[in-house]
Structure formats: structure tokens, C-alpha cells
């Protein structure tokens, strides 16, 4: 008695939009014979997407439509029923339209576009929106349609000139057809609403229309008649631009045309009065006649000119007395590096300038050249900073007068450095057959300097700053190299099991851009007795080494210089002792004489007291019955203890002030 599904059931195919959807059947039961009726309800599932009639929709909406206008949209269809059928619509975000979803009597949904913000074709000619239809399934199914809205133009913009006033000037003898000015206006509307026609304003005088013509399509204002400066010097022309709309928009502008005078009138001389005859004894300065001269032309065209001939009384003058030019080395030959600028207020040949290059160094003439006409200084060859850093020369600027006048301008050319030289190793010498081996004894502690790599860089500044790096070593843990000194130190204490021979490869790099590098190979032997190493070295050294004699003479020179220095210092010491003994005897004799001399004053020179530095000594003046005496402190750094060879100064510092009790009979005299 089981009821089975014999094929796939499609509710939409069986019932369409009818709901509920049911299938009826009858069952016959035999023995006894009975008839039963049954109904199967087909329940809907969300197995269909909403569908729009087309994937795109197009609307034309005038920009003059007011806000609040509604525009119905085509509805989507969903064959599902109930909650699975079409439930709502959604509109993509935009600033102009909103979506209003309505429900029909049968429960179906439809949507309308509502204009919230007025359209402006001049801002946006078209809009693209997306309308989405959603059913109520879980998850919901959807469909989309592209809505293309064309904004239809309305004549809501008047023409606009790009400027309200145009200015032009023409000569009075300008022929007919000459362009005076071109006016331009624009209209943001489209079609006939944006087509512009130019014309004279209604209040333009007939005389102006006779002298000027205006192209209605291009806005070109041209000369039509004969202009005369003496008749009218300035024309004020009013023009207008109209579009071709049903109610045309109008814009106005004016053109100011200035007529420029030309010398088209000869001067007229009028004799006002003549005193004739003139007596033969008339004094100089007597008026003979009164004349008046008139010219209808204006400004310079109306003057009687007196020509003043030029005299070469001005020397050329340069904008600068000297020039400093910086040129990168390895430059391209033939490039200009400087333009010497000079002026001459004279006229004609007197103001024609020529430039000549003078140089104290004859080699400069092969390196630099100057254009005689314009003063452009050229570099004829490539310069090398390492060869020469600075060039000095004189540029003479001379006019063409008679006699000519000249001015000298100094030019200094500085060659700036490029990093074009790698470091050069001085020690150990590279690419030689001789082998230089440095020796270090076993057990040498860490931090001991074994040798030093010496290198130079022909460049300058930062390009010549060399750094040293240990690139390769027999035992990398045994030696280190100073980054900027090139000194090779032991990194740890040497052990007996260390290799007897070590080869170090030192990488030398400068700090230029790009970085250039070189390498040096250092051989180090670990030996208990230096003689063993020397014996080994003699086997590999060349038989005849010319440097042996140089080394011998260098050692001999050092010994001689050291001996001379020792003898000199010994002689100076003996001389100093002799002078000291002589001054001591003089001091003792002067002291005994000083105390035997009668008088109210006593003078004592205290040399090298226990409380003063060795380079100080004091004079103490004692007066009889004085309550306080003066202490004069001699200046330091004296070479003799004698007071006569010192300059004295009065010192009141607490550490050097002494009070000596006595009685004062009188103050010391200035010379005492």
C-alpha cells in the first residue's frame, strides 16, 4: 500500500502560479471491493531565480523635470509562489533617484524611480543605475537589470564670454580685412541650445559698423574701413552672443580698440614774424624771426628730432666681476660650461662686444675656448680631478669703438671629483715576484698588531675614504682587520696547534658611488724563532734585491738622526745646569747685599716656594712697622728665576696672598 514518486515533480510545470498545488488519485481495494480518494499537495521550494524581461533598460529624462517625478520600471517575474516568490527590489546608490516598491492587488511587487534631486545635463550627461530583484527564499535568489538614463538637455544656460572686456590695438594705416580681435563665448547646453551666433549690439553706432566687421560664426572682429588716428583714437565696440534655443539666451561684451598713430603727416612750419633787415652790428643772440612748427601726428611722430651721435665713452660692463664654475671630471668634450654676460650702453659699433680668453697657464688654451660673439665658454677636452683641480683664466670683453674699451672678468673653473679611481695598495706590493711575510710568535695574545695594509685612493673626499674587510683567511678566527686603519690584529691568543703559515685576503673599498674596490694578500708566519722564518724567506727571495741597499741606508739615517738628537738634548741639559748655578750664585750675592743696605724697604726674591708651582716665583716687599705688605706675583712660564728678567703683576688671589706684620713708616715709592 506504499505510494511512491515515479518521476521528478516540478510544481511550476504542474500548477504554475496556482497555490496550493495538489494532485488527486483514487485507490481500489478488492475483496471486499472498496474505492478510496486521495490528494497529494506539491509544496514549493525556492528553485527559480527572478527574471527581468531584458538585461538593460533605457530612460530619457529631461533636465527640467522637477523633483518628485515618478518613472515606472519593468517588473521581474518569479515562478515560485509564497515566500519564495518575488518580495522586493533594491536600487544602487546614487544622488538623484530613490526606489519606491509598490504591491498590486494580486500581491505582486513592482518598482518606480522617484526623482529626489533635479538633474543637470551640464554636470552629468548620463547615469547608470542597477536594479536588483530579490525573492524571499533562504538564501534569497536575485536578478539584476542595468538602467541607463540619458539626461535630455533643456535651454537653461545662456552663453558666457570668456572675458567681459577685450583690448586690441591697430595702426591707423592697417589694411581692410586685418584681424583685430577674436571674441569667444561658450554655452553648456547641447544642440541648437548650445549653438552661438555673434553680432553687434543694437546700440552700436553706424560708424563703427562701417569701420569693423564681425564674423557671426567665429567671433572674429576685422578692419573694414579706413582708420584715422587724428579723427578717433579709441573705439568702444559692444558685441553680443545668442544661442539658437526657442527662448535664446544672450551674453554681452565690449572690445576696446586703440588706434596707434603712424607718421603720416609732414611737419608744417609757420613764420610768425621776421625782423628784416638785420643791422650789421646786431649783437649775438638778437631775435631774427619767430617760427612755429606743428605736426598732426602724436608723441614721437610729432617731435622735431635732433640726432645726437654716439661717442664710445662707456666700457663694457659685466653682470659679475668673477665667475666660479664647477665641472664634473670625465666630462664630455665640447660642452658649454658658462656664458659670460656683458652690456654696453653705447650704440652701433661702440656697443658691439667681442670676448677673448686670456690665461696665465699655456695649457688652458688647449682645454678651453670662448665664442667671440656671445661669450659662451666651452670645454674642449675631458678634465681629470686627480690631474688638476682648479683652472684660472681672464675673459676680456671689448667693444668695437675707436679706441676700443675693455673689461676683464676672472673665471675660476673647479673640477669636482668622481669616484673613478679604485684604492691602490702600497703595502704589501701587489703583482710582484717578491714575497713579504710578516712573522708572529706562538702564544701572542689577542689584540696584538701583526702588520698593516697601506693603501691610498687618488680620489678626494668621501670617494677616497677606504674601508678594510677580511675577505678570506686560512683561519678566520685568528686575525681581524681594522675597518678604517687597515691594521691586522690577533683576534685570540695563538696556540701551538695553529697553522704555521696564514694567507689573508683583505678587501679594500672606497665610499664613492659606485663603490670601487681592490684586494691585498698578506702572508703571516707563526714561528718560535725569527731566524727560522728568515731562513725560509731567503729561499724564496730574489738573489739581487735592489731594496736591500735602500733599507740599509734608511736604518743608517735613523741611527744618525737619533744620535744627533741625543747629543743635542745632552748639551741643552748641561747648558741649563750651568745657567742655573750661575743665577743661584748671583741670587745669594744680591740677597746678602740687600739685607746690608739701610733704609725702610727690604726686597726678597722667593724662588720656587713650596706652595707655588715650579714656574712661579714671588717678590715680597717688607716695610718697617707696616701692618700689611704687598705681594707681587711674577708671570708664569719664565726661563730664568731672576726678577730683572720677569714682568710683574699685582695678584690678589686668595691662594697667593700673604700678610706680613710690621710697622709702616711710609708707603713704597712707585719706582720701588
TrEMBL record:
Question: Where mainly found?
Answer: membrane
Keywords of the record, alphabetical order, are:
Calcium, Cell adhesion, Cell membrane, Glycoprotein, Membrane, Repeat, Signal, Transmembrane, Transmembrane helix
Q: Where is the Cadherin domain?
A: 1-52, 53-161, 162-269, 319-425, 432-544
Q: A Pfam family matched by this chain, by name?
A: Cadherin
- A single GO BP annotation from the record? homophilic cell adhesion via plasma membrane adhesion molecules
Xref: InterPro entries: Cadherin-like_dom, Cadherin-like_sf, Cadherin_C, Cadherin_CS, Cadherin_N, Protocadherin/Cadherin-CA
Question: Which CDD domains does the UniProt entry name for this protein?
Answer: Cadherin_repeat
- The record's gene field reads Pcdhgc3
- The highest taxon in the source lineage is Eukaryota
Gene3D superfamilies, A to Z: Cadherins (2.60.40.60)
Q: Where is the segment annotated Disordered?
A: 639-672
Q: Where are the transmembrane segments?
A: 552-575
* Residue stretches of biased makeup (Polar residues): 639-650
**GO cellular component term, pick one:** plasma membrane
Query: What protein is this chain from?
Result: PCDGK protein
Alphabetized GO MF terms: calcium ion binding
This protein's membrane topology, according to the annotation, is: Single-pass type I membrane protein
Subcellular location(s): the record lists: Cell membrane
Amino acid at each position: 500500500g506504499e505510494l511512491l514518486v515515479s518521476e521528478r515533480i516540478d510544481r511550476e510545470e504542474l500548477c504554475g502560479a496556482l497555490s496550493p498545488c495538489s494532485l488527486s488519485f483514487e485507490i481500489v481495494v478488492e475483496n471486499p471491493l472498496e474505492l478510496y480518494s486521495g490528494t497529494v499537495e506539491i509544496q514549493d521550494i525556492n528553485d527559480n531565480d527572478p527574471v527581468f524581461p531584458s538585461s538593460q533598460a533605457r530612460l530619457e529624462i529631461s533636465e527640467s523635470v522637477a523633483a518628485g517625478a515618478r518613472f515606472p520600471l519593468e517588473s521581474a517575474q518569479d515562478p515560485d509562489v509564497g515566500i519564495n516568490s518575488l518580495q522586493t527590489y533594491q536600487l544602487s546608490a546614487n544622488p538623484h533617484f530613490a526606489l519606491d516598491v509598490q504591491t498590486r492587488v494580486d500581491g505582486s511587487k513592482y518598482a518606480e524611480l522617484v526623482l529626489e534631486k533635479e538633474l543637470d545635463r551640464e554636470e552629468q550627461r548620463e547615469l547608470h543605475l542597477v536594479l536588483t530583484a530579490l525573492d524571499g527564499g533562504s538564501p534569497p535568489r536575485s536578478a539584476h537589470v542595468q538602467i541607463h538614463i540619458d539626461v535630455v538637455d533643456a535651454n537653461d544656460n545662456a552663453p558666457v564670454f570668456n572675458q567681459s572686456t577685450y583690448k586690441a590695438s591697430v595702426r591707423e594705416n592697417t589694411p581692410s580685412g586685418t584681424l583685430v580681435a577674436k571674441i569667444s563665448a561658450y554655452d553648456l547646453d547641447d544642440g541648437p541650445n548650445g549653438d552661438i551666433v555673434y553680432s553687434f549690439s543694437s546700440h552700436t553706432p553706424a560708424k563703427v559698423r562701417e569701420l569693423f566687421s564681425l564674423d557671426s560664426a567665429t567671433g572674429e572682429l576685422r578692419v573694414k574701413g579706413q582708420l584715422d588716428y587724428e579723427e578717433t583714437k579709441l573705439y568702444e565696440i559692444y558685441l553680443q552672443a545668442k544661442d539658437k534655443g526657442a527662448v535664446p539666451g544672450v551674453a554681452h561684451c565690449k572690445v576696446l580698440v586703440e588706434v596707434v598713430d603712424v607718421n603720416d603727416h609732414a611737419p608744417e612750419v609757420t613764420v610768425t614774424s621776421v625782423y628784416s633787415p638785420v643791422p650789421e652790428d646786431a649783437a649775438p643772440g638778437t631775435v631774427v624771426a619767430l617760427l612755429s612748427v606743428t605736426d598732426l601726428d602724436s608723441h614721437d611722430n610729432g617731435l622735431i628730432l635732433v640726432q645726437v651721435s654716439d661717442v664710445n665713452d662707456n666700457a663694457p660692463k659685466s653682470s659679475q666681476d668673477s665667475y666660479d664654475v664647477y665641472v664634473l671630471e670625465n666630462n664630455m668634450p665640447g660642452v658649454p660650461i658658462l656664458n659670460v654676460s656683458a652690456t654696453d650702453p653705447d650704440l652701433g659699433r661702440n656697443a658691439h662686444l667681442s670676448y677673448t680668453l686670456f690665461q696665465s697657464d699655456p695649457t688652458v688654451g688647449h682645454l678651453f675656448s670662448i665664442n667671440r660673439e656671445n661669450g659662451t665658454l666651452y670645454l674642449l677636452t675631458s678634465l681629470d680631478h686627480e690631474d688638476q683641480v682648479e683652472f684660472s683664466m681672464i675673459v676680456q670683453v671689448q667693444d668695437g669703438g675707436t679706441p676700443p674699451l675693455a673689461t676683464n672678468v676672472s673665471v675660476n673653473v673647479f673640477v669636482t671629483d668622481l669616484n673613478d679611481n679604485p684604492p691602490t695598495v702600497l703595502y704589501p706590493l701587489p703583482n710582484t715576484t717578491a714575497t713579504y711575510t710578516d712573522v708572529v710568535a706562538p702564544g701572542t695574545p689577542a689584540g696584538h698588531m701583526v702588520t698593516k695594509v697601506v693603501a691610498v685612493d687618488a680620489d678626494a673626499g668621501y670617494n677616497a675614504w677606504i674601508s678594510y674587510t677580511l675577505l678570506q683567511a686560512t683561519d678566520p678566527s685568528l686575525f681581524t682587520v681594522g675597518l678604517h686603519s687597515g691594521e691586522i690584529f690577533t683576534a685570540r691568543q695563538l696556540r701551538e696547534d695553529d697553522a704555521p703559515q696564514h694567507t689573508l685576503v683583505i678587501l679594500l673599498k672606497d665610499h664613492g658611488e659606485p663603490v670601487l674596490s681592490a684586494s691585498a694578500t698578506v702572508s703571516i708566519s707563526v714561528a718560535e724563532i725569527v731566524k727560522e722564518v728568515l731562513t725560509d724567506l731567503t729561499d724564496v727571495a730574489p738573489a739581487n734585491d735592489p731594496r736591500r741597499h735602500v733599507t740599509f741606508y734608511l736604518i743608517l739615517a735613523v741611527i744618525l738622526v737619533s744620535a744627533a738628537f741625543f747629543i743635542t738634548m745632552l748639551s741643552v741639559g748641561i747648558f741649563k745646569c750651568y745657567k742655573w748655578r750661575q743665577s743661584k750664585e748671583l741670587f745669594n750675592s744680591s740677597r746678602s747685599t740687600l739685607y746690608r743696605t739701610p733704609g725702610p724697604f727690604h726686597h726678597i726674591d722667593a724662588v720656587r716656594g713650596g706652595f707655588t708651582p715650579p714656574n712661579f716665583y714671588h717678590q715680597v716687599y717688607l716695610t718697617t712697622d707696616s701692618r700689611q705688605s704687598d705681594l707681587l706675583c711674577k708671570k708664569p712660564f719664565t726661563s730664568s728665576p731672576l726678577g730683572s728678567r720677569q714682568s710683574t703683576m699685582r695678584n690678589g688671589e686668595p691662594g697667593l696672598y700673604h700678610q706680613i706684620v710690621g710697622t709702616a713708616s711710609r708707603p713704597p715709592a712707585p719706582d720701588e
